[in-house]
Design brief:
The protein is of the alpha+beta class and 426 residues long. It contains 15 helices and 22 strands. 33% of the residues lie in helices and 20% in strands. Bound molecules: zinc ion (ZN) (2 copies).
Length: 426
């Protein structure tokens, strides 16, 4: 990237000016740090800090492009090999990142180009829909909509799972906006720190709803009837019945929209009609726990299983699974700047997250867009990428842009486009 030196300099100026605001995470002296510099895509890891001052000094004098720390605690975090580190345990980390799941807005702002056949398109694709090859160049963008989806997943994780089902104290949850497309949640708890990768896997299976069996709660076919389960069973059955009730309480038109949506239930017309006809009855059966007879024309046991799996997918949390299971993973350091956006990895208290708006945050203390200046400084840039999606930050929209376009834009927008690698200064 042509402007690495420039970006490094402004990151450095930021760290110098705001060093008092760089948070010090709990037990930082037992954590491993990793940094990616501006000039090469290699992480310098196995770094440890014994004093807060040295950690802050590192940001100012080395000014990395990306900064990470371990969820794990070690007696010698600076040891160059894992055996020598003296593993003490690992915080449980959840990473929710829209990179890993579908949002409708990706159809507007995620671009792909097939290096094999030259086809271009928008949306979330794994392989080229024309030639089937995997050689795709992707340009992923952000907007309020996908960041809201990610935020909502974190809120669901906390209030639908971690508190009611795992009884985890909210004070033990450390939340950050990742500085790009998601959020991290770290649980700092003595007991959880000792969990093995297998135990972490079990927790993840539970909160994602992976491998759920409806039969153990009573879903079965008996004498031509289908029997479901009761909402008295706490945990998943209660959550599932809750969502079914929520759907049943909607108008017929709304139900039709929900059930026919291809990305959601994708049911055919007949099944939807039968479901709507059964609505009142079904609601009563659920409410009164009346023998749980869920017999409904057209809904075989197989169809119920499919329907309930969709319900589970809506309730379960979209976490990036390896991050939670792998105890040697590093996550972004709170308060550091994200080298692909120039946004701050923003620490958030649980009661701040609900109204937090990363792209237009009115509370200066929580605002990840740190390069916005009151003096309205502008910057001239030239677009390098063939197409750059529209960017909406602080209520103002910029772009979309085409290659070769030269524009003068506010400093913080320029920093974002330069960090994204889609433009150069002129
Ligand atoms: Zn192709
Ligand atoms: Zn979006």
């Amino acid at each position: 990237m042509v402007d690495n030196k420039y970006l490094k300099r402004i990151f450095q100026a930021y760290y110098k000016e705001k060093q008092s605001e760089i948070p010090i995470v709990n037990l930082f002296d037992q954590r491993e740090f990793g940094f990616i510099p501006w000039d090469k895509q290699i992480m310098n890891r196995h770094i440890g800090f014994t004093s807060k001052i040295n950690l802050k000094k590192y940001f100012i004098s080395n000014t990395p492009k990306h900064a990470y720390m371990s969820g794990s605690l070690y007696s010698s975090p600076e040891s160059q090999n894992m055996q020598g580190k003296g593993y003490q345990g690992c915080d449980l980390i959840f990473d929710i990142d829209v990179d890993h799941f579908y949002t409708p807005c990706k159809e507007d702002h995620d671009l792909w180009h097939c290096k094999e056949c030259g086809e271009n398109g928008k949306g979330m694709v794994e392989k080229c829909p024309k030639c089937g090859k995997l050689k795709l160049k992707k340009l992923n963008w952000i907007c309020n909509e996908c960041l809201d989806v990610a935020k909502n997943e974190i809120i669901k994780l906390i209030y639908n799972f971690l508190i009611p089902d795992f009884n985890i104290n909210i004070d033990k949850m450390k939340i950050t906006f990742s500085g790009h497309r998601g959020y991290h949640l770290k649980i700092e708890d003595e007991q959880i720190r000792s969990f093995s990768s297998d135990e972490r896997r079990e927790i993840i299976d539970y909160i994602t709803g992976e491998n759920i069996s409806f039969e153990i709660w009573g879903l079965q076919e008996k004498g031509g009837n289908i029997f479901g389960f009761s909402r008295e069973t706490i945990g998943w059955p209660q959550k599932i019945i809750g969502l079914i009730e929520n759907i049943l309480s909607k108008t017929n038109v709304e139900i039709e929209t929900i059930l026919s949506n291809k990305k959601r239930f994708n049911l055919n017309k007949d099944l939807i009609e039968n479901f709507i006809n059964f609505k009142e009855n079904f609601h009563n059966i659920i409410k009164n726990n009346h023998n749980n007879n869920w017999t409904l024309v057209g809904f075989s046991l197989n169809a119920w299983n499919k329907f309930l799996k969709r319900i589970v997918a809506e309730i379960g949390i979209e976490v990036d699974i390896p991050v939670s299971i792998d105890i040697h993973r590093l996550i972004r350091y709170p308060g550091s700047l994200h080298g692909k956006t120039g946004f701050r990895v923003q620490k958030l208290l649980p009661d701040e997250i609900e109204v937090f708006n990363p792209l237009d945050e009115p509370n200066e203390k929580l605002d990840p867009i740190v390069f916005m200046s009151e003096k309205a400084i502008t910057q001239k840039i030239e677009i390098l990428e063939s197409e750059v999606p529209l960017t909406k930050i602080k209520g103002e929209t910029f772009g979309p842009y085409k290659q070769g376009e030269k524009v003068e834009i506010p400093h913080h927008i320029a920093v974002f486009l330069l960090c994204k690698g889609v433009a150069k200064t002129i």
